Amino acid sequence: MTAATILFIDDDDDLRAAHVQGLELAGFTLRSFAGGHEALKGITPDFAGVVVTDVRMPGMDGFEVFKRIQAIDDTIPVVLMTGHGDVPMAVRALKDGAYDFLTKPFAMDTLSAALRRALEARRLILENRQLRALYTATGDDEDRLLGESAVMQHLRQTIAQIAAADVDILIAGETGVGKERVARTIHRQSDRRHKPFIQVNCAVMPDSIFAAELFGVDSGARLEAGAPLSRRSVGKIEKAQKGTLFLDDIEGLSLPLQAKLLRVVEARELWVLGADEPRPVELRIIASSRSDLSQAVEAGAFRADLYYRLSGVTLKVPPLRNRKDDILLLFQHGLVAASARLKRPAPPLTAQLSRYLQAHDWPGNVRELEQYAERYALGLEVATAAEPDSFDGDQGLSARVAAFEAALLRETLAGCQGRAAEAMKRLKLPRKTFYDKLNRYRIDIRAFR
Protein backbone atom coordinates (compact mmCIF):
# COMPACT_ATOMS: atom_id res chain seq x y z
CA MET A 1 0.00 0.00 0.00
CA THR A 2 1.37 3.41 -0.96
CA ALA A 3 1.71 6.33 1.46
CA ALA A 4 -1.20 8.78 1.84
CA THR A 5 -0.42 11.56 -0.64
CA ILE A 6 -2.40 14.40 -2.20
CA LEU A 7 -1.96 14.68 -5.97
CA PHE A 8 -2.71 18.31 -6.81
CA ILE A 9 -3.36 19.17 -10.47
CA ASP A 10 -3.74 22.73 -11.76
CA ASP A 11 -2.34 24.33 -14.89
CA ASP A 12 -2.12 27.78 -13.21
CA ASP A 13 1.42 27.84 -11.81
CA ASP A 14 0.81 30.60 -9.28
CA LEU A 15 -2.43 29.13 -7.88
CA ARG A 16 -0.90 25.66 -7.79
CA ALA A 17 2.13 26.91 -5.85
CA ALA A 18 -0.06 28.85 -3.40
CA HIS A 19 -2.35 25.89 -2.70
CA VAL A 20 0.54 23.46 -2.33
CA GLN A 21 2.27 25.76 0.14
CA GLY A 22 -0.92 26.16 2.18
CA LEU A 23 -1.60 22.43 2.27
CA GLU A 24 1.97 21.61 3.22
CA LEU A 25 1.71 24.06 6.12
CA ALA A 26 -1.49 22.23 7.13
CA GLY A 27 0.51 19.00 7.36
CA PHE A 28 -0.35 17.25 4.08
CA THR A 29 2.11 15.38 1.86
CA LEU A 30 1.71 16.50 -1.75
CA ARG A 31 2.88 16.04 -5.30
CA SER A 32 1.85 18.77 -7.73
CA PHE A 33 1.31 18.62 -11.50
CA ALA A 34 0.48 21.09 -14.25
CA GLY A 35 -1.57 18.48 -16.13
CA GLY A 36 -3.35 15.17 -15.73
CA HIS A 37 -1.09 12.94 -17.86
CA GLU A 38 1.85 13.00 -15.44
CA ALA A 39 -0.37 12.68 -12.36
CA LEU A 40 -2.10 9.58 -13.70
CA LYS A 41 1.22 7.74 -13.93
CA GLY A 42 1.41 7.58 -10.14
CA ILE A 43 -2.10 6.20 -9.59
CA THR A 44 -2.68 2.49 -9.04
CA PRO A 45 -5.55 0.55 -7.38
CA ASP A 46 -3.67 0.63 -4.05
CA PHE A 47 -3.16 4.42 -4.19
CA ALA A 48 -3.75 5.58 -0.61
CA GLY A 49 -4.26 9.29 -1.24
CA VAL A 50 -6.63 11.80 -2.81
CA VAL A 51 -6.60 13.58 -6.15
CA VAL A 52 -7.43 17.29 -6.35
CA THR A 53 -7.84 18.62 -9.86
CA ASP A 54 -8.94 21.81 -11.53
CA VAL A 55 -11.69 21.33 -14.11
CA ARG A 56 -10.67 23.85 -16.77
CA MET A 57 -7.28 22.75 -18.12
CA PRO A 58 -5.88 22.52 -21.66
CA GLY A 59 -5.45 19.08 -23.17
CA MET A 60 -6.97 16.78 -20.55
CA ASP A 61 -9.55 18.58 -18.40
CA GLY A 62 -10.48 17.65 -14.85
CA PHE A 63 -13.50 15.56 -15.87
CA GLU A 64 -11.33 13.40 -18.11
CA VAL A 65 -8.81 12.99 -15.27
CA PHE A 66 -11.71 11.89 -13.04
CA LYS A 67 -12.97 9.35 -15.61
CA ARG A 68 -9.52 7.82 -16.05
CA ILE A 69 -9.05 7.54 -12.29
CA GLN A 70 -12.43 5.81 -12.07
CA ALA A 71 -11.22 3.28 -14.64
CA ILE A 72 -8.23 2.51 -12.38
CA ASP A 73 -10.23 2.36 -9.12
CA ASP A 74 -13.61 4.04 -8.77
CA THR A 75 -13.20 4.38 -4.98
CA ILE A 76 -10.21 6.77 -5.17
CA PRO A 77 -11.50 10.15 -3.88
CA VAL A 78 -11.36 12.92 -6.48
CA VAL A 79 -12.00 16.52 -5.44
CA LEU A 80 -12.85 18.90 -8.29
CA MET A 81 -12.05 22.64 -8.20
CA THR A 82 -14.52 24.54 -10.34
CA GLY A 83 -15.54 28.01 -11.41
CA HIS A 84 -19.14 29.16 -11.07
CA GLY A 85 -19.95 28.16 -14.66
CA ASP A 86 -18.83 24.59 -14.07
CA VAL A 87 -21.13 23.86 -11.13
CA PRO A 88 -23.82 21.90 -13.10
CA MET A 89 -21.12 19.69 -14.59
CA ALA A 90 -19.53 19.19 -11.17
CA VAL A 91 -22.90 18.12 -9.73
CA ARG A 92 -23.16 15.50 -12.46
CA ALA A 93 -19.63 14.35 -11.61
CA LEU A 94 -20.69 13.97 -7.96
CA LYS A 95 -23.53 11.72 -9.05
CA ASP A 96 -21.01 9.72 -11.07
CA GLY A 97 -18.85 9.22 -7.98
CA ALA A 98 -16.61 12.27 -7.54
CA TYR A 99 -15.89 12.79 -3.83
CA ASP A 100 -16.42 16.57 -3.62
CA PHE A 101 -16.27 19.80 -5.55
CA LEU A 102 -15.17 23.23 -4.38
CA THR A 103 -16.20 26.44 -6.07
CA LYS A 104 -13.44 29.01 -6.50
CA PRO A 105 -12.44 31.00 -4.60
CA PHE A 106 -12.46 28.86 -1.43
CA ALA A 107 -10.74 29.10 1.95
CA MET A 108 -7.76 26.87 2.64
CA ASP A 109 -9.55 25.51 5.73
CA THR A 110 -12.41 24.33 3.51
CA LEU A 111 -10.02 22.42 1.24
CA SER A 112 -8.12 21.00 4.20
CA ALA A 113 -11.32 19.70 5.84
CA ALA A 114 -12.46 18.08 2.59
CA LEU A 115 -9.09 16.38 2.14
CA ARG A 116 -9.04 15.03 5.69
CA ARG A 117 -12.47 13.48 5.18
CA ALA A 118 -11.41 12.07 1.83
CA LEU A 119 -8.18 10.59 3.23
CA GLU A 120 -10.14 8.95 6.05
CA ALA A 121 -12.64 7.52 3.56
CA ARG A 122 -9.79 6.14 1.44
CA ARG A 123 -8.05 4.68 4.47
CA LEU A 124 -11.20 2.80 5.45
CA ILE A 125 -11.70 1.44 1.93
CA LEU A 126 -8.15 0.10 1.76
CA GLU A 127 -8.40 -1.23 5.31
CA ASN A 128 -11.59 -3.11 4.36
CA ARG A 129 -9.82 -4.56 1.33
CA GLN A 130 -6.88 -5.65 3.43
CA LEU A 131 -9.16 -7.30 5.99
CA ARG A 132 -11.10 -9.08 3.25
CA ALA A 133 -7.83 -10.25 1.71
CA LEU A 134 -6.73 -11.63 5.08
CA TYR A 135 -10.14 -13.30 5.43
CA THR A 136 -9.78 -14.87 1.99
CA ALA A 137 -6.22 -15.98 2.71
CA THR A 138 -7.28 -17.72 5.91
CA GLY A 139 -10.28 -19.33 4.25
CA ASP A 140 -13.92 -19.43 5.32
CA ASP A 141 -13.51 -22.24 7.87
CA GLU A 142 -15.45 -21.00 10.91
CA ASP A 143 -13.20 -23.04 13.21
CA ARG A 144 -9.97 -21.47 11.97
CA LEU A 145 -7.84 -19.58 14.49
CA LEU A 146 -7.70 -16.02 13.19
CA GLY A 147 -5.38 -13.27 14.36
CA GLU A 148 -2.09 -11.63 13.46
CA SER A 149 -1.21 -10.49 17.00
CA ALA A 150 1.93 -11.86 18.65
CA VAL A 151 -0.05 -13.91 21.19
CA MET A 152 -2.09 -15.63 18.47
CA GLN A 153 0.96 -16.34 16.34
CA HIS A 154 2.59 -17.91 19.40
CA LEU A 155 -0.54 -19.97 20.11
CA ARG A 156 -0.64 -21.30 16.54
CA GLN A 157 3.07 -22.16 16.70
CA THR A 158 2.54 -24.04 19.97
CA ILE A 159 -0.39 -25.95 18.51
CA ALA A 160 1.71 -26.94 15.50
CA GLN A 161 4.39 -28.29 17.85
CA ILE A 162 2.07 -30.36 20.06
CA ALA A 163 -0.65 -31.46 17.62
CA ALA A 164 1.29 -34.48 16.37
CA ALA A 165 2.68 -35.37 19.83
CA ASP A 166 -0.58 -37.14 20.76
CA VAL A 167 -0.59 -35.96 24.40
CA ASP A 168 -3.65 -35.00 26.40
CA ILE A 169 -4.18 -31.24 26.62
CA LEU A 170 -5.95 -28.76 28.90
CA ILE A 171 -7.19 -25.55 27.26
CA ALA A 172 -7.79 -22.66 29.66
CA GLY A 173 -9.53 -19.40 28.89
CA GLU A 174 -12.49 -17.14 29.58
CA THR A 175 -15.95 -17.70 28.14
CA GLY A 176 -16.07 -17.01 24.41
CA VAL A 177 -12.32 -16.90 23.69
CA GLY A 178 -12.49 -19.83 21.26
CA LYS A 179 -11.44 -22.89 23.27
CA GLU A 180 -13.46 -25.20 21.03
CA ARG A 181 -11.76 -23.73 17.97
CA VAL A 182 -8.37 -24.42 19.54
CA ALA A 183 -9.41 -28.02 20.23
CA ARG A 184 -10.64 -28.52 16.66
CA THR A 185 -7.44 -26.99 15.29
CA ILE A 186 -5.34 -29.42 17.32
CA HIS A 187 -7.43 -32.34 16.03
CA ARG A 188 -7.24 -31.11 12.44
CA GLN A 189 -3.44 -30.83 12.59
CA SER A 190 -2.95 -34.20 14.29
CA ASP A 191 -2.61 -37.70 12.83
CA ARG A 192 -6.14 -38.34 14.10
CA ARG A 193 -7.72 -35.74 11.79
CA HIS A 194 -9.51 -38.39 9.69
CA LYS A 195 -11.06 -39.94 12.81
CA PRO A 196 -13.99 -38.59 14.90
CA PHE A 197 -13.88 -35.38 16.90
CA ILE A 198 -16.44 -35.85 19.67
CA GLN A 199 -17.42 -32.88 21.82
CA VAL A 200 -19.02 -33.30 25.25
CA ASN A 201 -20.35 -30.39 27.30
CA CYS A 202 -19.68 -31.37 30.90
CA ALA A 203 -21.96 -28.82 32.53
CA VAL A 204 -25.40 -29.38 31.00
CA MET A 205 -26.91 -32.68 32.29
CA PRO A 206 -27.63 -34.48 35.58
CA ASP A 207 -25.03 -37.07 36.61
CA SER A 208 -27.12 -40.17 35.84
CA ILE A 209 -27.96 -39.07 32.32
CA PHE A 210 -24.50 -37.68 31.72
CA ALA A 211 -22.79 -40.91 32.82
CA ALA A 212 -24.85 -42.90 30.33
CA GLU A 213 -24.14 -40.32 27.63
CA LEU A 214 -20.40 -40.32 28.28
CA PHE A 215 -19.62 -43.93 29.19
CA GLY A 216 -22.42 -45.77 27.40
CA VAL A 217 -24.79 -48.46 28.70
CA ASP A 218 -24.56 -52.20 28.11
CA SER A 219 -27.60 -54.18 26.97
CA GLY A 220 -29.64 -55.46 29.87
CA ALA A 221 -28.47 -52.69 32.21
CA ARG A 222 -31.01 -50.52 34.03
CA LEU A 223 -30.93 -46.73 34.21
CA GLU A 224 -32.21 -45.80 37.70
CA ALA A 225 -35.79 -47.18 37.97
CA GLY A 226 -36.21 -47.79 34.24
CA ALA A 227 -36.63 -51.08 32.44
CA PRO A 228 -33.50 -52.95 31.25
CA LEU A 229 -32.15 -51.70 27.91
CA SER A 230 -32.84 -54.10 25.06
CA ARG A 231 -29.72 -53.07 23.20
CA ARG A 232 -26.41 -51.48 23.97
CA SER A 233 -26.07 -47.68 23.97
CA VAL A 234 -22.67 -46.46 22.77
CA GLY A 235 -21.28 -43.55 24.79
CA LYS A 236 -19.35 -40.51 23.61
CA ILE A 237 -16.00 -41.95 24.76
CA GLU A 238 -16.41 -45.01 22.55
CA LYS A 239 -17.61 -42.88 19.64
CA ALA A 240 -14.29 -41.01 19.84
CA GLN A 241 -12.29 -44.26 19.37
CA LYS A 242 -9.01 -43.51 17.54
CA GLY A 243 -10.06 -39.86 17.36
CA THR A 244 -10.29 -36.94 19.78
CA LEU A 245 -12.61 -36.57 22.80
CA PHE A 246 -13.15 -32.91 23.72
CA LEU A 247 -14.46 -32.39 27.26
CA ASP A 248 -15.74 -28.82 27.27
CA ASP A 249 -16.14 -27.03 30.64
CA ILE A 250 -14.69 -30.00 32.51
CA GLU A 251 -14.96 -28.09 35.79
CA GLY A 252 -18.70 -28.87 35.59
CA LEU A 253 -18.10 -32.60 36.24
CA SER A 254 -19.14 -33.88 39.67
CA LEU A 255 -16.51 -35.62 41.82
CA PRO A 256 -18.03 -39.11 41.25
CA LEU A 257 -17.90 -38.62 37.47
CA GLN A 258 -14.34 -37.28 37.77
CA ALA A 259 -13.38 -40.56 39.47
CA LYS A 260 -14.91 -42.59 36.62
CA LEU A 261 -13.18 -40.43 34.02
CA LEU A 262 -9.80 -40.75 35.77
CA ARG A 263 -9.59 -44.45 34.81
CA VAL A 264 -10.10 -43.55 31.15
CA VAL A 265 -7.41 -40.88 31.35
CA GLU A 266 -4.92 -43.02 33.27
CA ALA A 267 -5.41 -46.52 31.84
CA ARG A 268 -7.34 -45.87 28.62
CA GLU A 269 -9.95 -48.30 29.91
CA LEU A 270 -13.68 -47.70 29.69
CA TRP A 271 -16.21 -49.14 32.12
CA VAL A 272 -19.50 -49.12 30.23
CA LEU A 273 -22.44 -48.92 32.64
CA GLY A 274 -23.65 -52.47 33.34
CA ALA A 275 -20.60 -54.15 31.77
CA ASP A 276 -18.71 -56.98 33.50
CA GLU A 277 -15.27 -55.81 32.48
CA PRO A 278 -13.54 -52.71 31.09
CA ARG A 279 -12.95 -52.15 27.40
CA PRO A 280 -9.76 -50.66 25.98
CA VAL A 281 -10.05 -47.28 24.26
CA GLU A 282 -7.49 -45.52 22.11
CA LEU A 283 -8.07 -41.81 21.81
CA ARG A 284 -6.74 -38.37 22.61
CA ILE A 285 -8.40 -36.31 25.35
CA ILE A 286 -8.60 -32.52 25.20
CA ALA A 287 -10.32 -30.75 28.10
CA SER A 288 -11.24 -27.10 28.49
CA SER A 289 -11.98 -24.95 31.51
CA ARG A 290 -13.08 -21.36 31.91
CA SER A 291 -12.10 -21.31 35.59
CA ASP A 292 -8.76 -21.90 37.29
CA LEU A 293 -8.71 -25.65 37.97
CA SER A 294 -5.79 -25.33 40.40
CA GLN A 295 -8.03 -23.21 42.64
CA ALA A 296 -10.82 -25.77 42.25
CA VAL A 297 -8.36 -28.45 43.40
CA GLU A 298 -7.47 -26.38 46.49
CA ALA A 299 -11.16 -25.90 47.23
CA GLY A 300 -11.83 -29.65 46.94
CA ALA A 301 -14.12 -29.21 43.93
CA PHE A 302 -11.83 -30.96 41.45
CA ARG A 303 -9.68 -34.07 41.85
CA ALA A 304 -5.96 -33.31 42.02
CA ASP A 305 -4.97 -36.56 40.28
CA LEU A 306 -7.27 -35.85 37.32
CA TYR A 307 -6.05 -32.27 37.14
CA TYR A 308 -2.39 -33.26 37.01
CA ARG A 309 -3.10 -35.94 34.40
CA LEU A 310 -4.84 -33.45 32.12
CA SER A 311 -2.70 -30.36 32.69
CA GLY A 312 0.67 -31.76 31.60
CA VAL A 313 0.27 -29.62 28.47
CA THR A 314 -1.82 -26.51 29.10
CA LEU A 315 -2.73 -23.93 26.46
CA LYS A 316 -4.00 -20.54 27.58
CA VAL A 317 -6.22 -18.75 25.06
CA PRO A 318 -5.93 -14.96 25.55
CA PRO A 319 -9.02 -12.78 26.04
CA LEU A 320 -9.87 -10.40 23.25
CA ARG A 321 -8.89 -7.35 25.31
CA ASN A 322 -5.29 -8.67 25.24
CA ARG A 323 -5.22 -8.99 21.45
CA LYS A 324 -6.90 -5.81 20.25
CA ASP A 325 -4.85 -5.82 17.05
CA ASP A 326 -7.01 -8.76 15.92
CA ILE A 327 -10.41 -7.15 16.55
CA LEU A 328 -10.94 -5.64 13.08
CA LEU A 329 -9.90 -8.85 11.30
CA LEU A 330 -12.16 -10.97 13.52
CA PHE A 331 -15.04 -8.54 13.02
CA GLN A 332 -14.57 -8.56 9.25
CA HIS A 333 -14.50 -12.37 9.29
CA GLY A 334 -17.70 -12.49 11.32
CA LEU A 335 -19.36 -9.82 9.19
CA VAL A 336 -18.62 -11.55 5.88
CA ALA A 337 -19.76 -14.90 7.26
CA ALA A 338 -22.96 -13.43 8.71
CA SER A 339 -23.75 -11.50 5.53
CA ALA A 340 -23.33 -14.68 3.47
CA ARG A 341 -25.71 -16.57 5.77
CA LEU A 342 -28.23 -13.73 5.66
CA LYS A 343 -27.86 -13.37 1.87
CA ARG A 344 -27.18 -9.64 1.93
CA PRO A 345 -24.13 -7.49 1.08
CA ALA A 346 -21.72 -6.82 3.93
CA PRO A 347 -21.97 -3.16 5.10
CA PRO A 348 -18.68 -1.25 5.14
CA LEU A 349 -16.48 -0.70 8.16
CA THR A 350 -16.79 3.00 9.10
CA ALA A 351 -14.44 5.17 11.14
CA GLN A 352 -16.96 5.41 13.99
CA LEU A 353 -17.46 1.65 14.04
CA SER A 354 -13.71 1.00 13.97
CA ARG A 355 -13.20 3.24 16.99
CA TYR A 356 -16.12 1.62 18.83
CA LEU A 357 -14.82 -1.91 18.17
CA GLN A 358 -11.36 -1.12 19.49
CA ALA A 359 -12.58 0.87 22.52
CA HIS A 360 -15.02 -1.80 23.76
CA ASP A 361 -13.72 -4.34 26.33
CA TRP A 362 -15.60 -7.36 24.84
CA PRO A 363 -16.20 -9.28 28.09
CA GLY A 364 -17.80 -12.05 26.01
CA ASN A 365 -14.66 -12.15 23.83
CA VAL A 366 -14.78 -13.51 20.27
CA ARG A 367 -18.28 -14.91 20.69
CA GLU A 368 -19.63 -11.49 21.66
CA LEU A 369 -17.79 -9.87 18.74
CA GLU A 370 -19.25 -12.38 16.26
CA GLN A 371 -22.76 -11.77 17.60
CA TYR A 372 -22.20 -8.04 17.25
CA ALA A 373 -21.04 -8.57 13.64
CA GLU A 374 -24.24 -10.46 12.86
CA ARG A 375 -26.40 -7.70 14.33
CA TYR A 376 -24.41 -5.13 12.35
CA ALA A 377 -24.97 -7.15 9.16
CA LEU A 378 -28.71 -6.94 9.93
CA GLY A 379 -28.47 -3.17 10.42
CA LEU A 380 -29.33 -3.42 14.13
CA GLU A 381 -26.12 -1.87 15.52
CA VAL A 382 -25.70 1.20 13.30
CA ALA A 383 -26.72 3.68 16.01
CA THR A 384 -24.48 2.09 18.65
CA ALA A 385 -21.48 2.16 16.32
CA ALA A 386 -22.03 5.82 15.54
CA GLU A 387 -22.64 7.33 18.96
CA PRO A 388 -21.40 10.96 19.04
CA ASP A 389 -19.27 10.13 22.12
CA SER A 390 -17.16 7.86 19.93
CA PHE A 391 -16.01 10.73 17.72
CA ASP A 392 -12.32 11.53 17.78
CA GLY A 393 -11.72 14.49 20.05
CA ASP A 394 -9.07 15.81 17.65
CA GLN A 395 -11.63 16.33 14.86
CA GLY A 396 -12.70 19.83 13.97
CA LEU A 397 -16.34 20.98 13.92
CA SER A 398 -16.83 20.37 10.17
CA ALA A 399 -15.44 16.83 10.41
CA ARG A 400 -17.66 16.06 13.42
CA VAL A 401 -20.74 17.41 11.64
CA ALA A 402 -19.92 15.34 8.55
CA ALA A 403 -19.40 12.21 10.67
CA PHE A 404 -22.68 12.77 12.50
CA GLU A 405 -24.54 13.41 9.22
CA ALA A 406 -23.17 10.19 7.67
CA ALA A 407 -24.05 8.22 10.81
CA LEU A 408 -27.60 9.63 10.82
CA LEU A 409 -28.05 8.68 7.16
CA ARG A 410 -26.92 5.11 7.87
CA GLU A 411 -29.09 4.84 10.98
CA THR A 412 -32.16 6.07 9.07
CA LEU A 413 -31.52 3.74 6.13
CA ALA A 414 -31.18 0.83 8.53
CA GLY A 415 -34.48 1.73 10.17
CA CYS A 416 -36.16 1.94 6.75
CA GLN A 417 -34.53 -1.27 5.46
CA GLY A 418 -33.00 0.78 2.64
CA ARG A 419 -36.29 2.27 1.35
CA ALA A 420 -35.17 5.58 -0.13
CA ALA A 421 -38.57 7.29 -0.18
CA GLU A 422 -39.19 6.58 3.50
CA ALA A 423 -35.67 7.70 4.44
CA MET A 424 -36.09 10.99 2.56
CA LYS A 425 -39.42 11.54 4.34
CA ARG A 426 -37.92 10.89 7.80
CA LEU A 427 -34.93 13.13 7.12
CA LYS A 428 -37.05 15.78 5.36
CA LEU A 429 -34.59 15.91 2.47
CA PRO A 430 -35.37 16.54 -1.21
CA ARG A 431 -34.41 13.72 -3.56
CA LYS A 432 -31.37 15.46 -5.09
CA THR A 433 -29.91 16.45 -1.70
CA PHE A 434 -30.48 12.95 -0.35
CA TYR A 435 -28.58 11.25 -3.17
CA ASP A 436 -25.86 13.90 -3.17
CA LYS A 437 -25.20 13.11 0.48
CA LEU A 438 -25.16 9.36 -0.19
CA ASN A 439 -22.52 9.95 -2.88
CA ARG A 440 -20.51 12.29 -0.65
CA TYR A 441 -20.35 9.78 2.21
CA ARG A 442 -19.96 6.72 -0.05
CA ILE A 443 -23.11 5.10 1.36
CA ASP A 444 -24.42 2.16 -0.68
CA ILE A 445 -28.17 2.07 -0.10
CA ARG A 446 -28.28 -1.58 -1.25
CA ALA A 447 -26.38 -2.63 1.88
CA PHE A 448 -29.43 -1.78 4.01
CA ARG A 449 -31.99 -3.79 2.05
Automatic annotation (TrEMBL):
GO terms for biological process: phosphorelay signal transduction system; regulation of DNA-templated transcription. The keyword Protein transport does not apply. GO terms for molecular function: ATP binding; sequence-specific DNA binding. This is Fis family transcriptional regulator. The modification 4-aspartylphosphate is found at residue 54. PANTHER family: C4-DICARBOXYLATE TRANSPORT TRANSCRIPTIONAL REGULATORY PROTEIN DCTD, TRANSCRIPTIONAL REGULATORY PROTEIN. InterPro entries: AAA+_ATPase, AAA_lid_NorR, CheY-like_superfamily, Homeodomain-like_sf, HTH_Fis, P-loop_NTPase, Sig_transdc_resp-reg_receiver, Sigma_54_int. Keywords: Activator, ATP-binding, Nucleotide-binding, Phosphoprotein, Transcription, Transcription regulation, Two-component regulatory system. The keyword Transcription regulation applies. Residues 5-119 form the Response regulatory domain. It comes from Asticcacaulis benevestitus DSM 16100 = ATCC BAA-896. It comes from the Bacteria. Residues 145-378 form the Sigma-54 factor interaction domain. Transmembrane segments: none annotated. SMART domains: AAA, REC.
